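#struct-help
A.M.: can someone run this one for me? Single chain, 90 residues.
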Amino acid sequence: MNTTKKAKGEILIEKLLSGENIALITDAGMPGVSDPGEDIIKSAIENNIEIIALPGATASITALVVSGFPQIDLYLKVSYLLKVKIELRN
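D.P.: on it. Structure tokens below:
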């Protein structure tokens, strides 16, 4: 994690710990997948901060994002490649 991203994440965690609410919003895709939101979510989990996710296109991705599961990108890429392999077989 680069220094600027880490510092901004720490500021957000401090706000949450002081009782403020924040929303993590993205202009494309699900926050926490392939973006800096993943680091903020992990930090929130480490600090016992409650995370509420609004469901996206699929419940499984929403659950994966708030789980703090490491390397979400790897999980999604492997899942995608397995799907493509199955489709190619058929």
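A.M.: thanks! The helical segments are 3-17, 37-46, 59-67, 72-89.
D.P.: also worth noting: The chain is about 60% helix and 0% strand.
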